[in-house]
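Let us practice reading a record.
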Amino acid sequence: MSGHFRVHAKMRVMDGLERNEKSGASFAYNEQTGAPWHRLGVPMAGHQTATSMLEAAYANYQVSLEPMYVKSPDGRLVTVAGQYATARTNPHTGEFEALGTVKSRYTVLQNQEVIERALAVVGASRGDAVLDTAGVLFDGRQFFASIDLGTLVIDPGGVSDLVSRYLLVKTGHDGNTPLTYANTDVRAVCNNTVAAGLAKASRVFKAKHTPNAHGRLEEAREVLNLSTAWANEFQAMAMEMLGINMTAGKLDRVIDSVIPPVDTARRQANRNEAVETIKHIYAGPKNVGYVGNNGWAAWNAIVEYFDHYRPANDDSERALTSMDDSSWVTRRKVAAQSAVLSLA
């Protein structure tokens, strides 16, 4: 794979400052490719090297393995055999912090190493200034970025809707988050963050933080060759959705699949508001007004609602939940995909 790659966060999670203390997140992005949808994050002047972007995102910390102890009744520290704590010095505060507990087989994968290996997989060289974003979540426990793999044209002879392809790169230092490469998509016309397309396990590469993790990373290139197959399948799925005539009754059925009917007046009022919002988005210029009255417009309307309009405590909470590929929001978006395709 060759050419110019941009790295984007699946969601951007900052609040105009360098760090959002409430969410434990930090983020930096290339301002030349546009501000995030919620105007959060630290802008950078153009593409950056891995070192520069990680430093701007406060993601340039080194994770270490530290022995664990328990205090005996007489005050002695007793080593916990086979158990360690992952830890870092917070680059924002300078404080030493524990991140999680792991077993002796755990191998630390540093953020910079993960990014450099991912860039090598897609054909970028070590030190190239190609990173567009980098982000840290949950007080350093997780790190993420994604690499632009190019743009799909949906229905080239008709609506010519544009869908970008991305390689999501995610890792963690909490003992629970494996290194993950996954195909995902962002609809360019409204910059939605969308579920991982067909969400097939064969389109995701995961490596546990064990001694063979470095070796397994070398398998990523072979696994990522599936990106082409993923793109073809996603394009076929989108074309199938475009061919589904979306009547009012069908739209109601799809909405019911992700926001089921409720049994109390208060919940019903909340549900009515959500349904009204989805239908308003569906009928708008970026959906029915752009691609027509079909399943593709319906799916994108539901995705847009969950990413941008659903009730949340604040933008950070909404962004964090939308970014998590195992969250209830992602599951709802995948359910909406299945519901639309069932109408074919």
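A brief commentary: The chain is about 35% helix and 25% strand.
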